Amino acid sequence: MKKTLFALAAFSLPVAASAQLGVDDSSDQRVAAAADAALEQDVLAWDFVEGITTEVGPRQAGTEAEARGRAWAMRWLKARGFANVADEPYQMQTWVPGDVHKAEVVGPFPQPLVVQPLGGSASTGPDGITGEVVFFRTVDDLRAAPEGSLKGKIAYISHAMTPTQDGSHYGFAGPARWVGAGIAAQKGALATVIKSVGTDLHRNPHTGGTGFPAGVQPTPAGALSVPDALNLERMFARAGDRPIILKLILTPRNLGTTTSGNVVGEIVGRDPSLPPVLVACHIDSWWNGTGAIDDGVGCGIVAAAALNVSKAGQPLRTIRVLMAGAEETGLWGSKAYSAAHIGEPIAVGLESDFGADRIWKFESNFRESNAALHNRIARSVVRFGVSNGMAVATGGADINIARDQDTAIIDLQQDGTRYFDLHHTPDDTLDKIDPVQLRQNVAVWTQVVGILANEPGEIRPKP
Amino acid sequence: MKKTLFALAAFSLPVAASAQLGVDDSSDQRVAAAADAALEQDVLAWDFVEGITTEVGPRQAGTEAEARGRAWAMRWLKARGFANVADEPYQMQTWVPGDVHKAEVVGPFPQPLVVQPLGGSASTGPDGITGEVVFFRTVDDLRAAPEGSLKGKIAYISHAMTPTQDGSHYGFAGPARWVGAGIAAQKGALATVIKSVGTDLHRNPHTGGTGFPAGVQPTPAGALSVPDALNLERMFARAGDRPIILKLILTPRNLGTTTSGNVVGEIVGRDPSLPPVLVACHIDSWWNGTGAIDDGVGCGIVAAAALNVSKAGQPLRTIRVLMAGAEETGLWGSKAYSAAHIGEPIAVGLESDFGADRIWKFESNFRESNAALHNRIARSVVRFGVSNGMAVATGGADINIARDQDTAIIDLQQDGTRYFDLHHTPDDTLDKIDPVQLRQNVAVWTQVVGILANEPGEIRPKP
C-alpha cells in the first residue's frame, strides 16, 4: 500500500511536481525535481549506511570503533565534495559493555536466559552474583516497595510496550530502563533486570542507557530479551512459593575519560554570512548491533539530502551536516557541539534519528511565527504522503544547539511501527532497511532542506 | 484468512460434523466430536509445551537437561492418566556446544560476527584460530575446489534458502550445513563457517548437525546468522584484493558415551493383542533455544490427541506415545526404539515434528493398498482445511521403526512457511506458537488417531 502510493506519486508527478507547488522561484523548481529524482533513484543514503555498517560495524561511544566510524564518515564526505570536513574533539566518560553477559535461572527451573547489560551498568565481576528475583509489574510498583526490602535481591521489572506509529510507547515503557535500576539500587537491590523495552519477540535484548541518582552506587543492570522475560514471568506463575533464584554475570567497565568527536561537513552557500541550515544525526551506535537504523541511516539521509540540494544549484545558505558522537551514552557530542558553537547562530535545525521507514508528518516550531514558510514546506511534501502536523517541533537528541539557541526546528516524523523491534538490539543491521522507504526519506529531506537553504528571510522570526 | 476458515468450520460443523462424515460407527461420531471440541478449546498441547519450555528449557541430547526433560514429560503423562509410562534407556555419543562462540573479522573491516557451532563441530581451543576466508557460493563450488587449496584457510559457504510451505528448501539449502564442513576439511580447511540454513533476518544462528566422512578429522564448523553472513558477503564485494581474515573461537566438546532415553506411555486399547498406533515426537532440543516448535509442541500435539481420543471412549487399539530422545544429534532415540521393539509389530506410525502451524495436507502410504481407509481419513479432515495429498508418506525422524517394519505411515503435513525462521535457533521459544493453529493440529490429530485406533482391520495390508 505504501509502496503503491509512493510509486503513484513518483510516476504521476516527477516532472510537473514543482509547477504544482504554487511557487515560481527557479531554485524551488530545481529542488522539487531533485526530490522527485531522489524518490526514484537515490543511492547516496544507502551507500553511506551500507558502507559504514559493512566497513566499520558497531561504533560504541568513546571507543576506537567510534573513532574508525568518524574517520570513515569523513572520507565519505570528502570524497563526495563536502567542504570543511572536520572531526571536532571533546572529552567524555566512556563505558564499555565487556565480554561476558550471562543469566541463568538456578532454581526452581534451571535454564539460561539471554541478557545484555544496560549502558551504565556496574559489573557483577567475572564470578557473577546470585539472588532471589522480586517481580514488579511496573516502575510505580517498584517505587512503592519499602526501603531496604530488596536487600540482597534482584529486581525484575516488567511492563507492556506495544508498537505505535509515533513511537510514543517509548515514553510509556521506557522508564523501566531509564530509572528502574536506580530506584531498585536505592532500595538495596543487588542488581536489576528488566524486560527489554522493545516490541519484538526475538532473543535479542534491547540495551540502552540507565541512570543512577547522585549518591547511589550503580549496580549491575541488564535487559532480558522479551521471550526470556516472558519465560521468567511464566516461571513466577508456576513456582508457587518457591523463590526464583537467578545468577547474573555482566562485566562492563568504565574507561574513565576518553576523547570522542563530532564529524562536520558543509555544502557552502552563496551567502555564508547567513546562518546555516543544520542537519544532524549521530555516528555512534550501541556495541551489539551495527548501527544501521540507529543511526547510520540517519547520517546517510541528511548527507544525501544536502548533496541532492547542492546538485540542484548552489544553495543560498550553507548546509551544515553534524554527525554527532556519543549520542547513546549521554548526548556527549550534541552537548559538546552546542557548547563549542553556541555563539554561531543557526537558522534551523533538523535531525534524522528514528530509522529508515517513511516520513508521515511534518512539524515545525514556526507554524505561527512564519506561517507562510511553514505552509509552503507543508504543501511541498504532500506529494510524498506527508501530512501537516499540528504539534510544535522540539527536535531530537542530536540538535541540542537548536534548543539552546531557541531557533527554528523541524521534525520530519518517521513511521516508528517497527522501530522498537530493532532499536538498541543486535538486530540493528542493514538488512532491516527498506530501500523504497529510505528513498522516500531522502526525497522529503531533499525537498525540505532545499527550501530552507534557499530561503532568504529569517526562518523563525523572534517575536 | 486461515483463522476465519477455522472459525467457520468450527462454528458451522461441531455437532453435526460426524454425521456428515458418511460413517455411522458410534466411535467415529465420538471421535469427530472430540476433534471438533479440540479445535475450539484444546489446552493440553499448550500446557505440555508451555510446561516443558518454562520448567525445563533447552534439552541438549545426551545431557542432564535432556534427562530433566524426560522426567518432566513422564510426570506430565502419568498425571494425565497415561499407562505404562517409562524411560527406556540407550547409550549414545554426546556432543555439547561449550561456552564460547565468537567470530571476529580481523581485517580489513574489523568487527564481530554472531556465530554458533554446528553439532559435531570440533573445538578451536580457547584461543581460537585465525585464517583467510575463502568464499563459495554453493556446495558444488566447494566440491570443485582443488585438493589442498584450502590449507590453512576458512571456507565460507553461502546459498539461498527461501520460505516454502512444504519446507522443501531445506533439502535444497541444507547440504551447506550437512556436508559442507566435511568437504572443506577434506580439502585442508582449518574451519568452515556457513550462512545459517534459515529464512529469517535475525542475529540468531541456525545450528544443526554436520557430518565428517569416515577418516576425515572433524574441524571447527559454525553457522553465522543470516545478517552476519550477508555482511561478510558485502565485505567480499568491498575488499578488492585484500584478504578477509577471520578469527573464530568455538569450544564444543565430545563427552563420549552417555545414557539417554526414550519416554513412552500408552492409552491402552480394548484389544491389546492388536498392533498399536504409534504417535511420535522428540523430547530433546538444541541448546540454544527452548525446544518449543522443535519439538516440545510436537510432543504436546501427539499426547493431547491420544488423550482426546481416550476421552471419546476407550479405543480398540492401544495408542502408544513415543517421545524419542536425541533426535537432533543423530536419531539416537528413534534408532534405539526400533532396535528394542522391532519384534513388536505396530499398526501405523505418525510423528509431529515440524512446528505448530496448521496442517494442510494428509498423506499415507496405503492410498492404494487400503483405499477405503485412506479415503475415509481424508474425508474426515476436509473440514479442518486439510487436503488429500498424492505423495506416498515416508514418515519422519522419530519413527524409524515404521520404516524398519515396513508398516503403515501417515504424514500430516504442516505449514512450514515460517518454520525455518526459527528452526534450530535461540528464537525457538513458546511465544512463536500460534494457539489457534496449534488447536487445529490437535483437532486433526485427534480425528486421524481416533479413526486409526478404532480400526479393526489391518491398516496397511501386505500385498
Describe the structure in your own words.
Chain A has 463 residues and is α/β, with parallel strands linked by helices. Chain A has two domains: 2-95 and 256-453, Zn peptidases (Aminopeptidase), CATH 3.40.630.10; 98-251, Glucose Oxidase, domain 1, CATH 3.50.30.30. Helices cover 35% and strands 22% of the residues of chain A. Chain A contains 16 helices and 16 strands. Chain A has helices at 2-12, 17-20, 26-41, 44-55, 64-79, 139-143, 169-173, 175-178, 180-186, 226-239, 292-311, 332-341, 371-380, 400-404, 419-422, 435-453; strands at residues 83-96, 101-107, 111-113, 115-117, 129-136, 154-157, 191-195, 221-224, 245-250, 253-267, 277-282, 319-324, 348-351, 359-364, 387-388, 408-414. In chain A, the strands form two sheets. Chain A has an eight-stranded mixed sheet, with helices on both faces. In chain A, helix 6 (139-143) links the parallel strand 5 and strand 6. In chain A, helix 4 packs antiparallel against helix 11. Chain A is elongated. The two termini of chain A are 43 Å apart. Chains A and B meet through helix 4 and helix 10 of A and helix 4 and helix 10 of B.
| Largest interface: chains, residues each | A-B, 37 and 37 residues
Kindly report the spatial arrangement of strands forming the biggest sheet of chain A. Answer: 1-10-12-11-13-16-14-15
Beta-strand content of chain A:
15-25%
Mean pLDDT of chain A: 94
CATH level-3 fold name of the largest domain in chain A: Aminopeptidase
Q: Termini of chain A, distance in Å?
A: 43 Å
Helix content of chain A: 25-40%
Please report the total strand number of chain A as a whole number: 16
